[in-house]
C-alpha cells in the first residue's frame, strides 16, 4: 500500500522560542496582527511576551482575550468580526488547544464571506470554504492537543451541543516549553493524556503510515517517562521540553494518520458533559487499545513495551487486555478521575451512543464501529476503570 505523509507547517521548537514571534510574523508578511488568547494565559504574562516581540518587529497589535474552553462558535464569530473591523492581515494564537482552535476558526472564517454557523455546516458536509485562511502563527501553552500542527480546528456548535472539526491550517508553529512551566498537576496530566491518546489512535487507525508510527512510539516513551515527573515537579524544564516535543510530534503524527473512534467518543463526552478533553481521551484510550489489538497485535504490544510493560501474552485479545490494564494503572497513579468521580452514571455514558454513531471519525476505526460496538465501548469505560 502506498502511504502518504507530510508536515503541515514549519515548527520553531525550544525554550525561549516565543521571543522569535515578531521575526516569524515579519517573514510571513504580517503588519496588523490580532493576538488571540484567554484571560488565564494573559495573566500568566505569556501574551505580553508575544505583544512585545511583535511590537519590536514594528507590528501594530490588537488583543482578543475572550477565548473560552472548547472554542465556542460565538467567540470565533466575535474574533472574525474584529479581523474585518481592524483590517488585520495576520493572527497569532497563544494558549491551550481551546485558544488555538478559536484562532484557527477565526483565521478561516474571517477570510470567507460566511457566518460561523455556515462555516460549521460546510465542515459537517466536509466542504472546505472558498478562500484560504488568513496567515496564522500558533503558540501552545499546554502540551497535549498538538493543534499547532494539525489542519483541524475543533469548534463547539453551542446551539446543537456538538464539537465540529473544521479545516483551518496554521502557517507556522512556535513551541516554547517554558510557557508550560508551572502548569498545575491536573492540567498537565489531562493534556498529556490527550497527546497519548492521539498516538494510540494514529497507530491503530485505518490509515497509519511509517512516519507517523515512528513519532507515535517515541511519544509514548516520552510521555510515560516524563508526565509523572512534570506532574510531581511542575517547574522541571527537562520534563516540560520532552512533553512539549511529544505533544507536537503527536499532532504531526495524527494529522496524517488521523484519530478515530476514541476521539469520536471524546468529542461526545466533551459536548455532553463539558469535561476536559484530556480526561475524556484518557478514559477511552484503554478501551480503544483493547478493541483494535486483534487487528494490530504487534503494534499494541509495542505500545505496551514503550510504556515499560512486560507483555508476555501472544493471543491478540490478551495483548489488548494486558496493555489496556497497564495503561489504566498508569492513569490511576496520575490521578485521572473515574466516571463516578465526575458524577457521570453508566446510563449517561451509554446515552452517548447516538452522538458517536453520527461522528465521522468512527469510520477511521479498523473495527467496524457499529452502534452495538459503540455502546459496548462506552459501557467498558465505566465498568473497567473504577
Ligand atoms: N485541533 C486539534 O487538532 C485538536 C486536537 C486535540 C484537542 N483539541 C481541542 O483542544 C481543546 C483542549 O485544549 P487543552 O487540553 O489544551 O485545554 P484548554 O485549552 O481548554 O485549556 C485548559 C485550561 O488550561 C489553562 N492553561 C493554558 N495554558 C496554561 C498554562 N501554561 N498554565 C496553566 N494553565 C494553562 C487555560 O486557560 C484553560 O483554563 C479541546 O476543545 C479539544 O477538542 C484540538
Ligand atoms: Fe485530542
TrEMBL record:
One Gene Ontology term of the molecular function aspect: alcohol dehydrogenase (NAD+) activity
What PROSITE patterns does this protein map onto?
Answer: ADH_IRON_1
One Pfam family for this entry, by name? ADH_Fe_C
Give the record's keywords alphabetically.
Answer: NAD, Oxidoreductase
**Residues passing through the membrane, by range:** none
Can the keyword Glycoprotein be found in this entry's annotation? no
- Record-annotated Alcohol dehydrogenase iron-type/glycerol dehydrogenase GldA domain positions: 11-177
Fe-containing alcohol dehydrogenase-like C-terminal domain: from which residue to which, for each copy? 188-381
Note the InterPro entries from the entry.
ADH_Fe/GldA (IPR001670), ADH_Fe_C (IPR056798), ADH_Fe_CS (IPR018211), Alcohol_dehydrogenase_Fe (IPR039697)
Q: CDD domains, per this entry?
A: Fe-ADH-like
Q: Which family does it belong to?
A: Belongs to the iron-containing alcohol dehydrogenase family.
State the protein's name: Iron-containing alcohol dehydrogenase
Amino acid at each position: 500500500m502506498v502511504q502518504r505523509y507530510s508536515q503541515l507547517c514549519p515548527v520553531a521548537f525550544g525554550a525561549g522560542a516565543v521571543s522569535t514571534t515578531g521575526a516569524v510574523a515579519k517573514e510571513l508578511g504580517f503588519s496588523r496582527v490580532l493576538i488571540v488568547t484567554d484571560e488565564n494565559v494573559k495573566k500568566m504574562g505569556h501574551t505580553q511576551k508575544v505583544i512585545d516581540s511583535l511590537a519590536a518587529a514594528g507590528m501594530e497589535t490588537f488583543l482578543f482575550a475572550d477565548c473560552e474552553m472548547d472554542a465556542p462558535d460565538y467567540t470565533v464569530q466575535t474574533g472574525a468580526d474584529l479581523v474585518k473591523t481592524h483590517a488585520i492581515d495576520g493572527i497569532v494564537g497563544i494558549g491551550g488547544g481551546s485558544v488555538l482552535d478559536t484562532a484557527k476558526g477565526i483565521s478561516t472564517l474571517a477570510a470567507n464571506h460566511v457566518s460561523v454557523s455556515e462555516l460549521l455546516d460546510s465542515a459537517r458536509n466536509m466542504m472546505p470554504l472558498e478562500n484560504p485562511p488568513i496567515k496564522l502563527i500558533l503558540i501552545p501553552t499546554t502540551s497535549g492537543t498538538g493543534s499547532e500542527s494539525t489542519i483541524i480546528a475543533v469548534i463547539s456548535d453551542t446551539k446543537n451541543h456538538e464539537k465540529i472539526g473544521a479545516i483551518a491550517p496554521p502557517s507556522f508553529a512556535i513551541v516554547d516549553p517554558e510557557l508550560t512551566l508551572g502548569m498545575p498537576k491536573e492540567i498537565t496530566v489531562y493534556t498529556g493524556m490527550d497527546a497519548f491518546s492521539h498516538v494510540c489512535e494514529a497507530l491503530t487507525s485505518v490509515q497509519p503510515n511509517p512516519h507517523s508510527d515512528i513519532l507515535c512510539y517515541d511519544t509514548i516513551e516520552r510521555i510515560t517517562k516524563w508526565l509523572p515527573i512534570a506532574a510531581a515537579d511542575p517547574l522541571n524544564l527537562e520534563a516540560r521540553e520532552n512533553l512539549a516535543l511529544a505533544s507536537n510530534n503527536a499532532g504531526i503524527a495524527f494529522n496524517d494518520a488521523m484519530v478515530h473512534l476514541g476521539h469520536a467518543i471524546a468529542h461526545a463526552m466533551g459536548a455532553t458533559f463539558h469535561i476536559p478533553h484530556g480526561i475524556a481521551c484518557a478514559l477511552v484510550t484503554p478501551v480503544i487499545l483493547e478493541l483494535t489489538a486483534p487487528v494490530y497485535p504487534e503494534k499494541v504490544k509495542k505500545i505496551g513495551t514503550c510504556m515499560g510493560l512486560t507483555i508476555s501474552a501472544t493471543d491478540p485479545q490478551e495483548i489488548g487486555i494486558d496493555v489496556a490494564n497497564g495503561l489504566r494503572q498508569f492513569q490511576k497513579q496520575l490521578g485521572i478521575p473515574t466516571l463516578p468521580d465526575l458524577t457521570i452514571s453508566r446510563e449517561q455514558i451509554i446515552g452517548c451512543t447516538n452522538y458517536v454513531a453520527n461522528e465521522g471519525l468512527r469510520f477511521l476505526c479498523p473495527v467496524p464501529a457499529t452502534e452495538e460496538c459503540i455502546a459496548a465501548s462506552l459501557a467498558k469505560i465505566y465498568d473497567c476503570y473504577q
